[in-house]
Amino acid sequence: MHHVEVFLLAAGAVVVAAACRRRGWSAPLVVLAVALLVSFVPGVPRYEVDPELLLEFVLPPLLYSAAQASSYRDFRRSLSSITRLGVGLVVVTAFAVAAVVTALVPQLPFAAALVLGAVVAPPDAVAAAAVGRRLGLPRRVMTLLSGESLINDATSLTLYKVALAGVATGAWALGDAAGTFALAVVAGVGVGLALGWLLHRARLRLDDPVVASAFGLLTPFAAYWSAEAVGGSGVLAVVAAGLYLGHQSPRAGYATRLYQGPLWSTVDLLLEAFTFALIGMQLPWLVRDLVASDQGLGHGVLVSAATAATVVLVRPLYVYATRRFDDLRLPGSHRPPGDALTRRESAVVSWAGMRGVVTLAAAAAIPQTIDDADFPERATLQLAAYAVAIGTLLLQGLTLPAVIRRLRVGSEREERADAAQEAAARRAAQEAVEQVLADQRPVWRQALGRERADVALDRISAAWQRRTTAAAQVLDPHTDDEDEDVVVAALPVPAGAASPEPTAAQGPGDEHPRDEQARDEQARDEHARDQDALADDHDPAPARHLDATAAADARAAAEAAEAAVASAGGPTGEGGSGPDPFAEEAEPLEAPGRSSRRPATDGGGDGDSDDLTADEHGDERGDEHGDEHGDGHGHGDGDGDGGDDRGRPDDDRRAGAGSGAARLARLRRPGTRSSGASPSTREQSLRVQDLRRRLVAAQRAVLVRRRDRGELDEEVMRRMLRELDLEDEAMSASWVERVRP
After folding, report:
1. Domain presence at residue 416
2. What is the pLDDT of residues 430-439, one digit of tens each?
3. Of 348, 311, 539, the residue nearest 440 (C-alpha)
């Protein structure tokens, strides 16, 4: 295919996909339908792509992206069911198709018919996953469908190679096939895990998220080609590397995560749209080839119809047979909770069998000749494969939403469980914040004096607590705002600062008192109630009594934060230089890179909070950071009013931040700005940045620990982690500008 034709096909597919995303339609199905219509327009050229291009350059990044987005814990928990679908169902489907086709075409060798069976056996979960996400399928159904699509390609391609060898030799042995498959699995998984481990170690040490993302783009190709070179499955290598790196992503830098998210979404959109458009453009030309062949169109249509019917019928029969076997082997009372699908969920899985990329690529890769002889019935086999791919995409893809709605399969219970998990995780993260603040209290007392340090740290604690309260309001919109108002009322406002705008819970006439001295006294009185717990300057215990698990989490998170800051340059002491604010945090848990945005250069100084980010971040940043710096030196403007557009993140990042606590309960506290930073302000800014690093690292450690214990779902953790990453990026830009010489 000419490069101009490739560009036009890809551009047209992306335009159609963009229109579908805007309207909430299933992009793969619409792209396929539009391509089918366009292919019948007179003058449209024939699009022929080297099948190796699809197998080696399109399939690896699609699988890698899907594996990274998958939950390793869910994948491991459902491994038995995934294996039965990804291996057992593929083999059963391939042999069933081969038997049916051989019965219809007796002169066709069984090995050649098995080639067709291997080509049409693996479903592609792209369309099913898109429909499932939009309609809210339960997570275990989505895990099963996505996990099946990750490993069934390896089974299919291995069986495809074995069948091709059988066509060449005229016979093939089951033992040889089993040995080939075992080698493919062991070598493929081994190569993928080794490469994933190496890239993860390198990613922790890279201080540039752009370079880390570039290595990430090369990873699927390196895994695929390396595994194929040693006789392993390139598909399994890509999947293993993606699962490992996705599971370890919370330990990478926040900037790397923010870069790679939209990057891989773009890659997915481009490759999926191009592939489904290519599938739709192929069918008319295959029909013409078959009409011109000796077999004739009627023969090809018969084989295609029989193959499609076999593929559609075998899947539900297999799913219900394995479910029945599980019922007999493990009665409901002895089955692990959440392990088995319900009858309705099984029906959805049975109907979600659309074919896609691998079927297209493998069908196109069927050789024209083998051992100097024409491949038997090649045109017929290719037409049958394309008919199955297009037929299942249109038939099952278009009717799957109706099936889901009819069966009333939803995820309401999971949504409630996710909300409870998120609330518990936010409370645990706040406990970790309190533990870090308690550990740092002696250091701050030594540097600033007991009274000033205590007031500053108490205000910082209240600022972080407000974030947890705001997030809880997302989970329960009826949450009373009274507690938050009490905390806000206890925060002193610098002299000369303007009154804040009324919040959602505050009426126009219900303004808080603005006398600075009264507020300072109120904050000190509140702090005095915690003096017994903090009487010893070197007592690291938190002020609140925690249960054993929460205390262990808080202590472990504080230790992780200590290691993070130590590896970044050590804590900031009085008269010390502190950590380099422009350096990468190369540490085991969190290694954030430089901000992707260049901060504005018109602010900073005397404890003000130049809002260098979007309005949604600025209000809270000014509220928190102005208080923190003001406490340390007796002045702090607390400016968080808006800010200019130079530090505004792009639309995607602002959209992501909008779903979390960063958009809720914004308390504006306008103030004045100064023009320069004194040395004492720089030292205090470095000290606060050091504390910020500890607090962020501690919260991430809590999320990872709860995920690893199964107390926080992977999807919920990643959503909370992204929220934290966006806030971390905004805070980093603000503090870096403040301490710039």
Report:
1. no
2. 888 888 888 8
3. 539
324: Cβ–Cβ under 8 A, 6 or more apart, which residues?
A: none
In angstroms, the CA 118 to CA 172 distance is 15
3-state helix, strand, coil in the chain (%, to 5): 70, 0, 30
CB atoms closer than 10 angstroms to residue 150: 24
Same domain, 83 and 163: yes
Phi, psi of 495, rounded to the nearest 5 degrees: -60, 140
Residue span of the structural domain in which 69 resides: 3-410
pLDDT attached to residue 645: 40
Q: How sure is the predictor about 172, in pLDDT bands with cuts at 50, 70 and 90?
A: low
pLDDT classification of 511: cutoffs 50, 70, 90:
very low
> Both 47 and 15 in a single domain?
yes
- Predicted pLDDT of residue 211: 92
In a domain, 34, yes or no: yes
pLDDT digits (tens, 9 = 90+) for 310-356: 999 999 999 999 988 877 776 654 555 445 788 888 999 999 999 98
Nearest to 206 by CA among 250, 261, 252, 247: 252
Number of domains in the chain: 2
- Phi-psi region for residue 352, left (φ > 0), alpha (ψ -120 to 50) or beta? beta
| Residue among 448, 626, 457 at smallest CA distance from 543 | 457
User: Burial level of 286, CB count in 10 A (0-12/13-18/19+)?
Assistant: buried
Q: How many CA atoms lie within 13 A of 732 on its CB side?
A: 27
Cα distance from N-terminal residue to C-terminal residue, the chain: 56
Residue 31's pLDDT band, with cuts at 50, 70 and 90, is very high
